[in-house]
Design goal:
single chain, mainly alpha
Length: about 130
């Protein structure tokens, strides 16, 4: 078997990515949902930090060459989710309800796309995040 240049097999990539998602999903769930508009800023700050840490760990995985284009698209969608969380935080700071709704919609759309790509990669935990 030729060397894969440090690349993971499809199964190993899926297992490691799912383990990262499980870890960060638990941390974000432990924050609990914000109970008021004022709570959104603190929640979003913490969730953003965790989301970026998780995304950085996912970027460190080397998918098999055949899965690389899908993995890159998936990570890019995860970055869009993080951007939407930052936008949500900023809108909450300004008490801008219209922008809060828009940020939530952008985040949900990116998350739906990311979940579909995660399923295409054979992931089981990540598409539930």
């Amino acid at each position: 078997c030729g060397g894969g240049g440090g690349r993971l097999s499809k199964d190993d990539y899926a297992k490691q990515a799912d383990a990262i998602c499980a870890k960060y999903n638990r941390k974000i769930q432990a924050l609990g949902p914000p109970k008021s508009l004022a709570d959104i800023v603190g929640f979003a700050d913490k969730a953003l930090r965790l989301t970026r840490q998780g995304n950085d760990e996912l970027k460190g995985l080397k998918p098999p060459k055949s899965e690389e284009p899908t993995a890159k698209k998936w990570v890019a969608q995860n970055d869009l989710v993080a951007k939407a969380v930052a936008d949500l935080r900023d809108a909450a700071k300004k008490n801008d309800r219209a922008e809060i709704r828009a940020a939530l919609r952008r985040g949900q759309a990116a998350n739906r796309t990311a979940n579909g790509l995660a399923r295409d990669l054979g992931l089981r935990v990540c598409p539930r995040g």
